[in-house]
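Purpose: get a first structural picture of the assembly so the mutagenesis plan has something to point at.
Setup: four entries, given in the order below. No constraints added.
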Amino acid sequence: MSAASKSGFQSEKLIRFHHCDPAGIVFYPQYFVLFHELLEDWFNRGLGLDYAAFVSRERRGLPTAHIDCDFRVPSKIGDTVQMRLSVIRIGTSSITLDVSVHGDGAVRVTAKQVLVLISLEDGAVLPIPPALKKEFARFLRPAPADAGLSGKAAPAPTKRDK
Amino acid sequence: MSAASKSGFQSEKLIRFHHCDPAGIVFYPQYFVLFHELLEDWFNRGLGLDYAAFVSRERRGLPTAHIDCDFRVPSKIGDTVQMRLSVIRIGTSSITLDVSVHGDGAVRVTAKQVLVLISLEDGAVLPIPPALKKEFARFLRPAPADAGLSGKAAPAPTKRDK
Amino acid sequence: MSAASKSGFQSEKLIRFHHCDPAGIVFYPQYFVLFHELLEDWFNRGLGLDYAAFVSRERRGLPTAHIDCDFRVPSKIGDTVQMRLSVIRIGTSSITLDVSVHGDGAVRVTAKQVLVLISLEDGAVLPIPPALKKEFARFLRPAPADAGLSGKAAPAPTKRDK
Amino acid sequence: MSAASKSGFQSEKLIRFHHCDPAGIVFYPQYFVLFHELLEDWFNRGLGLDYAAFVSRERRGLPTAHIDCDFRVPSKIGDTVQMRLSVIRIGTSSITLDVSVHGDGAVRVTAKQVLVLISLEDGAVLPIPPALKKEFARFLRPAPADAGLSGKAAPAPTKRDK
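Result (structure tokens, whole complex):
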């Protein structure tokens, strides 16, 4: 169901009835719910960190500050898709992820997502601890030379890492 | 609750319990559900077109091909937010929307969203009929001179309008 | 949009695209999300209590302990439905609500729902304060003599009000 | 992840961030989404029928006509729960399921759910074909002698099977 590799972390998902809209295809907000499942899977099975403990006990969160997403090929009920995640930048308080959805050998969705580490107690932005940075770095790879993403500058650290 | 003006279409929304996550703030995929509510409100109250008939009777849809979104300030349960929509580009088969969420006088979320007109019968991309283009054009305005959006080229029509 | 009357509290809702499934009708879990919207509307506009403050500041919640629901007539995108709520029992720590959904003059959904007052700090069941009981009592009415509901005994207070 | 046994079909689920509300526990409508996942898993892995094909190719659906649900113990993020399903009645056009959620050895949620076979083309109620009845019957067992459920009569077939 999941694996860490040179191409990053992968988790397989079944497209279910509740993901789909009256057009019979995935309603796009549901992809973002699936991206969050992928993030949880990455913590639990890729990083070897307990995501629930991260949230409930450590009271830390990784809300999305920015997302840039291309929907190329629709998915429909019953499809099995491969969701992939890799890290393309580690900032002071943020990480930038490259997320993609694949099915039947084709790229269906690509996204670049910036997450910021915060305290769930007061919402304050936190610096990423060195030990966590080291874990994230195991999934680091250069930004893909993808026409849809490479032309856009990474978010300015001074803005993201405030 | 809604109005058409020079700044585009606006619809007011209450942030509800079900939009919020264990951190007590809006779970970001729920913003995209709210964006879809805004689109429906724009059809029904801004364009004066029946969105349900558009989908159910005319069997047409406007799936999202691209979305680029900045989350600046979180929203929490009980907040009343103003959601605004304007059209920044009308292509052969697509429209590009500028969507934003405002609360307490601050910009909380900004997004640029590309929607493509399709047939719900077979998923085929359709040219936007002239009468519909004319309606959309009533909400057309130049792309905002926003550092976060202006630096990115609009999607190539040849790609989007295939 | 809402009103208090002898028939209880009413709030009108538009059935939206995101409520509907690939069959083009409301996906039944979405009705329960709408029931929660109705509860919030009842607090805000019926009881005159700020639901968000109840949750966020007073840190109290009303989780569902029991729900019994009949789905009679489906709803589809674009339908405007009337959602009605009245109180049929006020216990030590719980209230039992009669909830229904109406459209085009027909009863579409009926439900009996038991909510329990808890502290969000530790999940402990709380006795309903007399002032809150008095507010709830304004919407109290006998259980409907409905074949689908009347034959079932109300939950035993000793069980629900533990 | 799943198994057929004398106690019915079982599927294990991870409680995720998006299932939980600001109180940090599963928002009850999400249990019904999970019940639907369980139904899909039962088709795919228990009955050996392709649920997606059932919906998309055969254009048949199993909407819920009635649900009666007790929420006993809350679930929180990171919990692994066992969801169990068995058939307690097979009618002309409907099946009644006994569904339950278990965690840490305790029963957390119990439900009795009536599903009706319909055509997705026109919404018409269909008789359950003998071959499908035979499949369902493999998971048939007597209704549990549970105080919370046994006191309630099964829905009258003449009403459900209209």
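Residues 91 and 157 of chain D are 7 Å apart (CA to CA).
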